[in-house]
Amino acid sequence: MKCAHCTKHEATIKWVGEGGFMAFVHGHYEEICSCCSIRAQLAHASAMAARIPELLEALKTACREYDK
């Protein structure tokens, strides 16, 4: 079976995304290749890394009363 995303490579992974275990159990997944899986994981990791400055600022505000 070919990858549901790129249709170039052989699908070797059942990808759930944010659906979690229940989505998988009920057959709500896509069959994708390792290449597309890694690309999706990198995109997610990059988005999370981009939030680090924002989260550090939020932490300063949230913890201000505890840092005294």
**Rg over alpha carbons:** 18 Å
Strand content: 5-15%
Which parts are unreliable, with pLDDT below 50 for 5 consecutive residues or more?
none
The number of distinct helices, counting runs of at least 4 residues, comes to 3
Mean pLDDT: 90
| Shape assignment | elongated
Q: Numbering strands along the chain, what is their spatial order in the largest sheet?
A: 1-2
Largest sheet: 2 strands, antiparallel
Number of domains: 1
Order of helices and strands: EHEHH
Cα separation of the termini: 60 Å
Number of strands: 2
Structural class: mainly alpha
Percent helix: 40-55%
Brief overview, please?
51% of the residues lie in helices and 9% in strands.
Label this structure with key terms.
68 residues, mainly alpha, two-stranded antiparallel ribbon, 2 strands
Write up what this structure looks like.
By secondary structure, this protein is mainly alpha-helical. The chain has one domain (13-66). The chain is 51% helix and 9% strand. The protein is built from three helices and two strands; from the N terminus they run βαβαα. It has a two-stranded antiparallel ribbon with strand order 1-2. The radius of gyration is 18 Å and the shape is elongated. 7% of the residues are buried. The model has no long low-confidence stretch (mean pLDDT 90).
